[in-house]
Amino acid sequence: MMSRLTALLLPLTAVLMFSACEKASEEPATPAPTAPGAVAPAETPATTEADADDATAALPEVPAYESLHDLMEAVDDHYKFLRRNADSAEPAEMLEHTAMLRALALAAKEWTPHEVEDAPEAEQAVLLATYHEHMDKVGPALDAVEAAVKSGDRAAAEAAIRALHEVEEHGHEALGVD
Q1: How far apart are CA 88 and CA 73, in angstroms?
Q2: Do 148 and 157 form a contact (C-beta atoms < 8 A)?
Q3: Which homologous superfamily is 4-175 in?
Q4: Which of 90, 103, 147, 156 has its CA 20 to 30 A from that of 116?
């Protein structure tokens, strides 16, 4: 089972990367470990527990939700904003929604989906690992959205948002979510 620190560090790698780029460090960044199957950024800073705390503090606060379903409805609202406004919204507004999506995805990892809870006990560990594996793919997908928005390439942003949707669809398919 993945430690809570590891679960926080994997999706936050990109937040740390962008933060490091803004600081214009003179030393080359050291690649951080990535989850199997995850797309590693070209350069990422070394990650420490303090870095994780700083990156988490930079994310918007997530309201308390009564259920994972309610939280995922909020995810869907922010995703829809990105999808519908990729060609017209101000970059700062797009980045706000992307940051909230990242914060919500981190919060969602703390929940156990009902598909896991309702499964036979022998299958629950595998399903929960599958859930976490797919949630870990959200971070790199959001990294691509952020990079495209920051570059001003609206076509690339639209493509990255479509790729984010594919991550969602594959995760739902793997867990049997309707």
Answers
A1: 23
A2: yes
A3: Cytochrome c/b562 (1.20.120.10)
A4: 103
Please provide the DSSP assignment of 67-93 as one string.
SHHHHHHHHHHHHHHHHHHTTTS-HHH
Separation between Cα atoms, residue 63 and residue 51, nearest integer Å: 23
Measured between alpha carbons, how far is residue 79 from residues 16, 45, 70, 119, 164 in Å? Answer: 22, 28, 14, 28, 9
CA distance 73 to 59: 19
Residue 111: phi and psi, rounded to 5, are: -95, 160
Helix-, strand-, coil-residue percentages of the chain, each rounded to 5: 70, 0, 30
* pLDDT tens, residue by residue, 56-107: 558 999 999 999 999 999 999 999 999 999 999 999 999 999 999 999 999 9
Residue 47 DSSP one-character state: -
Residue 71: how many CB atoms within 10 A of its CB? 20
At 120-159, the pLDDT tens digits run: 999 999 999 999 999 999 999 999 999 999 999 999 999 9
Assessment of whether the complete model's pTM goes beyond 0.85? no
> Using CA atoms, how far apart are residues 30 and 42, in angstroms rounded to an integer?
10
Nearest to 12 by CA among 56, 42, 43: 56
